[in-house]
Design a protein that fits this description.
Elements lengths: L3 H10 L6 H6 L2 E7 L14 E2 L4 E3 L6 E2 L11 E2 L1 E7 H4 L13 E6 L16 E6 L5 E3 L28 E2 L1 E7 L7 H6 L3 H14 L15 E3 L16 E6 L21 E6 L1 H5 L7 E5 L2
Antiparallel strand pairs: 1-11, 1-12, 2-6, 2-10, 3-9, 4-5, 6-7, 7-8, 13-14, 14-15
Length: about 290
Amino acid sequence: METKAEVMKAVAAVGLNEFAAEIEAQIWPSIRISYPEQPAPASGIGQSRIGGLPDLPIGVEWPTASGYDRHHFDRVDPLLFLAQINLADVTPYDIHSLLPHSGLLLFFAASWVNVLSEYRVSQGLWRVIYTEDLENLRPASPPELPEGLNDDEDYPDNAPTGHAFRSSALAFSLEMTIPQAFEHPTIERIRSTEKDNEAFWDLKKLLYPETEDDLPINHPPTHRMLGHAQLDQVFSPNSNSILLLQLGSEIRSPRPADASDIYWEFGGTGCFFIEPDALRNRDFSDIEFVYETD
C-alpha cells in the first residue's frame, strides 16, 4: 500500500477502528526492495544489487571482524557482502528526504557462520560503508578465506559459494508500514484481547499479502529501507532509530531465477539501524544491528 488512506481503509475493514488514531500516527513510509519483473544484469559498477561482489572505493579494503570466539570467528576474518544501494535509485521513494540523494551504501555482516546468536548481537560482526565518490569505485575480488570460514560442518548450507551470494538487480517502490513487534506500545494494546489480536493478523495480511500463506518457506523475503522493520520480537534498538536496511532470507523452493540466494542463519532477517543525528551527518560508523529468526 502506497498511501496512508489505503492503510486506514484496511484498518477499518478488519474492525480496528478503536485503535485507528494510534495506528495512523505510526504509519511510516518505507522503500520496498524487490527483484525486477524482467531479469536484469546486476554487474554494473555502482549498481544497486543484493549479492555478488561489492564495488569498493579505491583505498578501502574488504571489511573484516575480529575478536569473536565462536565457530572459528576468533581472528581477523572477512565479513560477507550483502548488498549495495545506489542512493540515486531510492531518492524518488524517500518522501521525507532522510537519506543522502547520491552515493553508495554497502552492507556487510557475518551472516553465514552461525555467530548471530542473539537478537542484538556483538559489535564488530557487521559494517556499513558510505561513499559519495562513484567515479573511484573498483570491483572487489573475493577475499581469501581462512580454513575455518570455508564452511561449518554442522551447517553446510550456510556458506555461499565463493564467499558471495548470487547477484540480483533490484527494483524499488513506496510502501507504507506499521509496527508489528510485540513490544511496541500500540501493538501491545491491540494484542491484549484475542479478538483484536486476530484482527491485527488480518490487517498484516492485507498490508503484506505475500505473507498470507502460513508457511514461511513460501514467502518472498522482505527487503526494505526506512519505515518499520518487519520484526515480531524486536522493535528497534531505541524508539528513535531509523531502519537503514532490512534484508530477509530467500528460502522459497524453487527459488525464482532472478532472485538472490541471500540467507541469514536459520532463515532469519537482519536489520541495520542508524540514529537520526548520525544519518543527518552522513556518519555510518556506528550502526546498530538486530537479527531475528523466522
